[in-house]
Design brief:
about 240 residues; globular; 6-stranded mixed β-sheet
Length: about 240
C-alpha cells in the first residue's frame, strides 16, 4: 500500500498558491481550514443541547430522558428516539441495582469496553463470557452461536444483575428462553442488539414478554454496542 501523500492532499484542499506561500505548512488562518471546538466538555455540552433541541423527548420521564439523550448521542440520529422503549421503572431498577453492587453482564467485548468504569457507583464487575475457553465447544454442542452459548455461563450471576445486550440477537433470544425456563431474574435488561437477521424480532420478543424484568429496548434494526454502553453509562452516571 502506498503511503498517504499528505502534501498532495493539502495542495488539493488549499490550492497550489496557498501551498507555496506557506512553504508546505497548512496555515490555520487560511479560510479553507475548518475551525472546530477543541474542548471535550464544550463538545459534549453542545452535542447534548443540540439533541434536546432537535429530538422529540416528550415520551420520556426526566430520568429516562437523561439516558435517551446519551443513546441518541451514541448513534448520531435524533430520530432514533422514536424507537426507544423504556419499561416502567427500568431506570430506577437499574440504578438501584448498580448502587447495590450488581454485576453488569455484556454480550460482547465492545459493550464491555464501552462502559466507563469510573462512573460505576460500586466498582461493579463488568463481565463478558464470550471469550471463555469453554464457549466454542458449548456452541457446537448446542448448535448455536458463540454469543448465545456464552449466555449459558451467566446462570450463577443473573440474579439481580444488569444485562446489556448490544450485539447479538441470538444472545437476547437465548436469555428470554432461559427466563422462560426459570432462570434467575436480572434487575434490568438492556436489549439493544443491532442487525438485519433477528435483531428486530428479538427486541419485539423482549417487549412483548420481558418475564417481569424492567427493560430498555430499541425497536427495529438499529442498536449496537455503542448505544448499549451509552445507556449503561447514563444509568451509572446518575446512579452515584
Amino acid at each position: 500500500m502506498n503511503p498517504v501523500d499528505y502534501r498532495s492532499r493539502a495542495r488539493r484542499r488549499h490550492g497550489v498558491e496557498s501551498w507555496r506561500k506557506t512553504g508546505g505548512r497548512v496555515d490555520r488562518r487560511d479560510p479553507g481550514v475548518t475551525h472546530y471546538l477543541h474542548d471535550g466538555a464544550a463538545i459534549y455540552e453542545r452535542s447534548f443541547a443540540i439533541i434536546r433541541a432537535e429530538a422529540d423527548l416528550s415520551q420520556f420521564s426526566e430520568a429516562e430522558e437523561d439516558v435517551a439523550v446519551r443513546m441518541i448521542h451514541a448513534c448520531g440520529m435524533v430520530e432514533a428516539s422514536k424507537s426507544f422503549v423504556f419499561a416502567s421503572g427500568v431506570v430506577t431498577a437499574a440504578r438501584e441495582a448498580l448502587r447495590a453492587g450488581a454485576a453488569i453482564l455484556c454480550d460482547s467485548e465492545m459493550v464491555s469496553h464501552g462502559v466507563t468504569r469510573t462512573r460505576l457507583p460500586a466498582e461493579n464487575a463488568v463481565i463478558c463470557t464470550l471469550r471463555d475457553p469453554t464457549v466454542p465447544a458449548l456452541a457446537a454442542k448446542l448448535r448455536t452461536t458463540r454469543s448465545a452459548a456464552a449466555i449459558e455461563l451467566w446462570v450463577d450471576r443473573l440474579a439481580g444483575s444488569v444485562v446489556a445486550i448490544g450485539n447479538a440477537p441470538t444472545s437476547l433470544f437465548r436469555l428470554l428462553e432461559m427466563l422462560d425456563q426459570g432462570a434467575p431474574h436480572p434487575a434490568a435488561i438492556l436489549g439493544i442488539p443491532v442487525g438485519f437477521v433477528g435483531a428486530e424480532e428479538s427486541k419485539e420478543a423482549l417487549i412483548t414478554n420481558p418475564h417481569g424484568v424492567p427493560f430498555i429496548a430499541v425497536r427495529g434494526r438499529i442498536g449496537g454496542s455503542a448505544m448499549t454502553a451509552a445507556a449503561l453509562n447514563g444509568l451509572a452516571r446518575s446512579g452515584v
